[in-house]
Amino acid sequence: MCTITSTDQYKELLSHPVYRNERILLLGGGSNILFTKDFDGLVIKVEIKGMTIIDEDYERVLLKVNAGEAWHDLVIYCINNNWGGVENLSLIPGTTGAAPIQNIGAYGVEIKDVIEEVQVIDVSSGKIISFTREECCFGYRQSIFKEELKEKYFISSITLSLTKKNHRISINYGAIQDMLHQQNVVDVNIKSISDAVISIRKNKLPDPLLIGNAGSFFKNPTISYNQYLSIKNINPTMPYYTTENQNVKIPAGWLIEQCGWKGKRINNIGVHQHQALVLVNYGDGNGEEIFQLSQDIASSVKEKFGVTLTTEVNIL
User: Fold this and answer.
1) Rounded mean pLDDT of 278-286?
2) I need a surface site. Which of 54, 142, 211, 228 has the fewest CB within 10 A?
3) Which residue in the list 116, 141, 143, 201 is annotated as catalytic?
4) Active-site residue flag, 312
5) Which string of b and e fits 107-134 if b means at least 16 CB within 10 Å?
6) 269: domain CATH number?
7) Is residue 187 part of a domain?
8) Is 17 left (phi over 0), alpha (psi -120 to 50) or beta?
9) Which domain holds residue 236?
10) Average pLDDT in the 207-219 region?
11) Would residue 216 show up in a list of annotated catalytic residues for this protein?
């Protein structure tokens, strides 16, 4: 294992025999990984820090953020400077460099909404290349770096386009509206939204420092409108969100809860009592047990609803 704190260190590492001869695992915060066994190869901990304003005018600011910055620290930095665009993504764990790979998102906002470009290093040549937002091919928890170009590029920094005024407020999700009402917020702004999201996440999600978890374990499945009608006919209270191409997105947590998994504990692992989308390790469980639990959950959802769940967590 090694830790890198600059792009020059990474370039130097590219020519090292250990790098050339071993499997490579780039590690940001490690918050989205389930280890089912030891990793047989070289683990590179990315801790390249730094944020720089590269351009700004009266309405927006372009902020370049290096890959090793903690994502939530970046969000708070933006809030403190009254820069809008990432407030709905408050308290998401992990590092900035990992964020575009997964196209992280929460409460109606995804990182693709604010990304201007992603700077990478070509693993084969060591050259620095920039990808525009369009070239990243962002989708729901997807990007070109997660599929077609996986392990071919090292993300060294991202550039965000943030608003300085006339912020685009996104409070469509009922949970945010309820929390703003609960907190007696009259003037809705980016800080009040961030505060609301932080409160929601702290109430619903277990702190990984206190109880082992990787956040949302499954993606919310997207199904056809006809399949949605078929399920809705039997489950009239089922929540849903319409998407492009007349498809419908169903909350995976709701599907899992309907199958009786919410709060269920099996020895030292289980499903969180407040959020069925989160699998937890109470202390002495192992990755294989968590993986098997996820398989059992997915099988029961498939059997009951005919819907296939796919994991958001990377399983090694």
Assistant:
1) 91
2) 54
3) 141
4) yes
5) bebbbbbbbbbbbbbebeeeeeeebebe
6) 3.90.78.10
7) no
8) alpha
9) 212-315
10) 87
11) yes
